[in-house]
From TrEMBL:
Coiled coil: none annotated. Belongs to the UPF0047 family. This is Secondary thiamine-phosphate synthase enzyme YjbQ. Pfam families: YjbQ (PF01894). Signal peptide: none annotated. It comes from the Bacteria. The lineage of its organism: Bacteria, Bacillati, Bacillota, Clostridia, Peptostreptococcales. NCBIfam families: TIGR00149_YjbQ. It comes from Anaerovorax odorimutans.
């Protein structure tokens, strides 16, 4: 098993940052050809998703849709820190993703990439990658 830690700076209150390259680099470094990679965010207001990489409007539309569904400025939220919207969005997206490794590469569909999803930025964030051979 191999374990990697990454630091990421987010620049906006809500954004999706492609991190496929970092994870693929970890896989290469590990030398694992067949197995799984588990990617985990230890934050309650940031998570991961796998989605389209070809059209950047997809990311914009996702952020727009989630903001409309769980608005930042909803005055009905009761959480004192004022970031309930970020907690809800992270719960919907999830704190982790599990990826299949085959022949030393992540198995993705042609249009897929892994995105770190920030919902309470800008912040300095950490995420972890655990690679399991098998």
């Amino acid at each position: 098993m191999y374990f990697y830690q990454h630091e990421i700076e987010t620049g906006r209150p809500q954004q999706m940052i492609k991190v496929t390259g970092e994870v693929q680099a970890d896989i290469k470094k590990s030398g694992v050809k067949e197995g799984i990679a588990v990617i985990f965010s230890p934050h309650t207001t940031a998570g991961f998703t796998i989605n389209e990489n070809a059209d950047p409007d997809v990311v914009s539309d996702m952020l727009y849709g989630f903001e409309n569904t769980f608005p930042t400025d909803d005055r009905e939220y009761r959480h004192g820190e004022g970031n309930s919207h970020a907690h809800i969005k992270t719960t919907v997206f999830g704190p982790s993703q599990t990826l299949i490794i085959h022949q030393g590469r992540i198995v993705f569909g042609i249009w897929q990439d892994l995105y770190f999803c920030e919902f309470d930025g800008p912040r300095r964030r950490t995420f972890f990658v655990k690679i399991i051979e098998g």
